[in-house]
Amino acid sequence: KSKQSGGTQSCFYTNEMEQKISRKVLLESGLRRALERNEMKVYYQPQVDRDGKGIIGVEALLRWTHPELGNVSPSEFIPIAEETKLIIPIGEWVLEQTCLQLKEWKDRGIVINRVAVNISTIQFHNTNFVQMVRRKIHSHKLPPSSFELEITESVIQDSFTAIPIMKEIKAIGCNLSLDDFGTGYSSLRYLKDFPLDTLKIDKSFIQTVLFSEKDQAIVDTIINMAAQLGLKVIAEGVETEDQLEYLKKNVNIGYQGYLFSPPMDAGNITTSMIFTEVKGSQRF
Ligand code: C2E
Ligand code: MG
Ligand code: MG
Ligand code: MG
């Protein structure tokens, strides 16, 4: 029997490749245990109205602290969770957490009208998805209209199957928004057929809106189109007063961005809410 040739294979890989692969393997196996080990947490980022005075709602954003690697960004681990289908139980857990959080806010008399939850395309097309959403919302006795499910343009690539699912979600009473608008397959032709409530302009457009007239033309066009289609608009990634000033000329707009608040722990959101309620017109 030949001896195992341990280690010799590694010379086919460069160090950098090896590191990338082992990080991915670590993340993948870590993701399998992340929920049971309590390593995940949902943060909330406020969505602010046109005047920057009131809170329209919050977006739930997942956070993961890996025991060895520390904080891992969702843009790194969500794609792995999608590849491995772990996004299905993880996504369900996120929805459960937001239900519990909404209830807690409610019990404490804190009014949060809407929570937006990101839905991955894999999760959206999973057979039990609609039923899962319905069951969760009903079992917590929450108004379905308190939820806005955020899908991306990639959901829509398969519009033949996507539209009926979207309609079922709407039939439950939830809102639907199209996230990262303008970055994916902008199937404008289909936009009128989707039962959407909100269009979220991707932050890349907001970050360049003051750079040139062309950048402004794109943002203005998206906002005008949304208005014509009867959709609300949220500008993502608003970081400066100048960007806010530029966007403010539109009637039908809300914002989300570091200028107002980063995503944060539910406890801190509560504090800001009370602050805005007490101070009324002040921006937090
Ligand atoms: P997204 O849904 O487009 O969320 C907005 C992202 O922009 C968040 O990144 C947020 O922290 C960030 N952001 C907010 N304001 C600003 C700003 O002013 N400037 C800049 N530069 N960024 C800002 P985050 O939390 O890292 O999440 C990244 C993406 O990961 C999300 O993008 C979403 O696609 C995905 N994601 C996060 N949580 C979940 C989840 O629970 N389920 C699923 N399926 N995806 C999630
Ligand atoms: Mg989102
Ligand atoms: Mg997104
Ligand atoms: Mg986005």
TrEMBL record:
GO CC entries: membrane
Superkingdom of origin organism: Bacteria
Occurrences of domain EAL (ranges): 24-277
Ligase is among the record's keywords: no
Keyword line: Membrane, Transmembrane, Transmembrane helix
UniProt name for this protein: EAL domain-containing protein
Full protein stretch here: 530 to 813 of 813
